[in-house]
Amino acid sequence: MDNTDMRILDELATNSRITMKELGEKVHLTGQAASERVAKLEDHDVIEGYTIKVNQDKLGYSVHAFMTIMIQHTNHHPYHSFIKAQGQYIVNNYKISGEGCYLLECKFPSNEILDNFLEKLNAYANYKLSIVINR
């Protein structure tokens, strides 16, 4: 990995749909050289895949929340089953160290649905809730 590879990664993180010719121009390479570098980064699993950024508000999910999940016992299976069943609201479920067991990132269409989710979650875990005000 050199500075050019890092610049390629920065450009692809900003716009993964950029053409190899445009990418090459931005990092001072030919399109073919940029393409070869990208292929090498993919082959070495530095680039694991490409994704899109979705505007959750436009999809009707205006409430963005983070929850620190604390489970008092060692059996986390019921919590995981609950999270799978609530998949439409779950963005990420990170296992963490520190204050909690998991950091749960969620999206909800309304505060009422969030409240309903939290009431159900209480059967499996305690939590600390943080609502995203602005990004």
TrEMBL record:
Keywords: DNA-binding, Transcription, Transcription regulation. The keyword DNA-binding applies. The keyword DNA-binding applies. It comes from the Bacteria. SMART domains: HTH_ASNC. It holds the Pfam family HTH_AsnC-type. Gene3D superfamilies: 3.30.70.920, Winged helix-like DNA-binding domain superfamily/Winged helix DNA-binding domain. Residues 1-62 form the HTH asnC-type domain. InterPro entries: AsnC-type_HTH_dom, Dimeric_a/b-barrel, Tscrpt_reg_AsnC-like, Tscrpt_reg_AsnC/Lrp_C, WH-like_DNA-bd_sf, WH_DNA-bd_sf. This is Lrp/AsnC family transcriptional regulator. It comes from Lentibacillus juripiscarius. The lineage of its organism: Bacteria, Bacillati, Bacillota, Bacilli, Bacillales.
